[in-house]
């Protein structure tokens, strides 16, 4: 079982992960519906998966750099799935918080040593 998807298969997988149906995916990639369904079948075969949920989990694992093993996910069941999703959510939340803090800081505050930084500004309502 090969794990590498072609660029077209990756594009189609991303469309499915966004919740698009076969016809919408076909319109998005500019291919006939039957071709998109064939690509979907090949994606499932290459990854050793059998459902859209597993495809979404594979894409999440791919984005966060975690190794995907469909058999392990099936054996461990819901706990593995929830762990992966929790990790992805916490990673996204931490990155979002870091960006929010950086946007609020001036360039001088951003690159100053922690002891030299002015005290945090308190916003009042």
Automatic annotation (TrEMBL):
Keywords: Membrane, Transmembrane, Transmembrane helix. Gene3D superfamilies: Winged helix-like DNA-binding domain superfamily/Winged helix DNA-binding domain. Residues 1-63 form the HTH luxR-type domain. One of its GO terms (molecular function) is DNA binding. The keyword Transmembrane helix applies. GO terms for biological process: regulation of DNA-templated transcription. The chain crosses the membrane at residues 77-96. The keyword Transmembrane helix applies. This is HTH luxR-type domain-containing protein.
């Amino acid at each position: 079982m090969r794990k590498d998807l072609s660029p077209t298969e990756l594009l189609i997988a991303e469309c499915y992960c966004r919740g698009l149906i076969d016809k919408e995916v076909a319109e998005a990639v500019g291919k006939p519906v039957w071709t998109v369904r064939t690509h979907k079948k090949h994606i499932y075969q290459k990854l050793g998966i059998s459902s859209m949920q597993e495809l979404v989990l594979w894409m999440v694992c791919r984005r966060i750099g975690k190794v995907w093993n469909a058999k392990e996910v099936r054996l461990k069941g819901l706990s593995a799935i929830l762990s992966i999703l929790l990790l992805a959510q916490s990673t996204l939340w931490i990155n979002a918080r870091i960006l929010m803090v950086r946007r609020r800081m001036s360039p001088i505050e951003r690159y100053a040593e922690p002891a030299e930084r002015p005290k945090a500004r308190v916003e009042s309502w």
